[in-house]
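Students often ask why we bother encoding 3D structure as a string. The short answer is that it lets us treat folding as translation between two languages. Here is a chain of 82 residues written in the first language.
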Amino acid sequence: MKWFAISPRDSADPRWPLPETPRITLKAENANDARRRFEEAYPSEPFGTPGHPTGDVGLGSFRGDAEALLVEATDTPPAPDA
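And here it is in the second language, the structure alphabet:
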């Protein structure tokens, strides 16, 4: 698998689930698989609670809006600080 960086095309997009993190790096087979994995991990916003979860598509969902995310191949990210 390869590493991919995913970020919002518009840095001010309110759907981005981690506003303090400009991009998310993950491993995937290809760019489409990276997008699918991102959408699976961050289905919608607000995220709800275990007792009251939200559906898979909500106000903050990127599903069906392929142009809203930038998916780019990237190098292996550095290890997090311990």
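Translate back mentally: Residues 2-74 form one domain. Keep this in mind for the problem set.
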